[in-house]
Amino acid sequence: MTENALLSDLNDRSREVFRRVVEAYLTTGEPVGSRTLTRDMSQKVSAATIRNVMQDLEHLGLLDHPHVSAGRMPTQLGLRLFVDGLMEAGPVSATDREMIDETLGHDSHDTGAMMGRVSMALSALTHGASLVLMPKQEAPLRHIEFVGLAPDRALVVLVFADGRVENRVFTPPPGHTASSMREAANFLNAMAEGRTLADLRGRIDHEVQTARRQLDDVAAALIAAGLAMWDGDANDRLIVRGRANLLADELADLDRIRTLFDDLERKRDIAEFLELAEQGEGVRIFIGSENKLFSLSGSSLVVSPYMNADRKIVGAVGVIGPTRLNYGRIVPIVDYTAQLVGRIISGRKG
């Protein structure tokens, strides 16, 4: 049965019991008993009636109970049904909006510093771990240079038209020499000026193939290895803050949280973070095993992409935490932050 069908099959009383169980669980993290609900229902009903409704909801797979004598708590399916069909996400509160605006309101020309502040603010506001994927730098290139550091280490230097300089250490191919480095740099510089890295990558394979007779194999391998340092490099674009917030949760499964930390430290499959956000505009919510990135930790991820002036998705902001996140508050915070970052990145006003 689909979620919509499940929701439509619930009568008013079942829907209210379900909503109140979920809302209480998201607030306290504890299973909810029938006696607790008798005080909150819009119509006066007995605890026995509520227990019967809870049993029906459990049979539908929306609620579960951890112990025989305990109350009920929502399942992953129940949380998904609540988020999609019953949750009321209001506007960002004035206090939250003020903190976000203040975070983004100064030194916005320094993208790295600004994104660091965004990540800290999201973590502080939501009491979860924040994930911020910085935009790719697409300024045109001015110059490329390779510098040998050791037999197994070299440095590639990229100078951009906006004055920014990026350095990256990489492992060059065996047998490289100062001469092969100069040859590789000359080859790249002949086609690089005025082009972005994305543009350059689009041509490099074709050009290397057609210029094989002009380049020795070492120089060709050097070009590939050097540019690979920036190829789809989402790992160094990811900012993570607030890991300690997850451990502070008294109900946290520490083994699962350690698994999450391991994933964050390795930034494993982090390109999927942006892929998740790119699957549609606006905020997306991944609960428990729906979360491809951190499914083993049983966490939830609230993520939204942001766009540049060309309406192209260039990064994302998100919050990760236990499945009992306060979705109704966190969703508008993530949405507002993503939209504001997008306006600043693209130079749009208003």
UniProtKB/TrEMBL annotation:
Keywords of this entry: Repressor, Stress response, Transcription, Transcription regulation
Q: What does this gene product do?
A: Negative regulator of class I heat shock genes (grpE-dnaK-dnaJ and groELS operons). Prevents heat-shock induction of these operons.
Q: Tell me the protein's name.
A: Heat-inducible transcription repressor HrcA
| Pfam families listed in its UniProt record | HrcA
Sequence ranges assigned to domain Heat-inducible transcription repressor HrcA C-terminal in this UniProt record: 114-331
Q: What is the lineage of its organism?
A: Bacteria, Pseudomonadati, Pseudomonadota, Alphaproteobacteria, Rhodobacterales
Quick check: keyword Calcium in the entry?
A: no
Q: Please give the coiled-coil regions recorded for this protein.
A: none
Taxonomically, the superkingdom here is Bacteria
Gene3D superfamilies in the cross-refs: 3.30.450.40, Heat-inducible transcription repressor hrca homolog, domain 3, Winged helix-like DNA-binding domain superfamily/Winged helix DNA-binding domain
The family this protein is said to belong to: Belongs to the HrcA family.
**Gene that specifies this protein:** hrcA
Statement: the UniProt record of this protein carries the keyword Repressor: yes
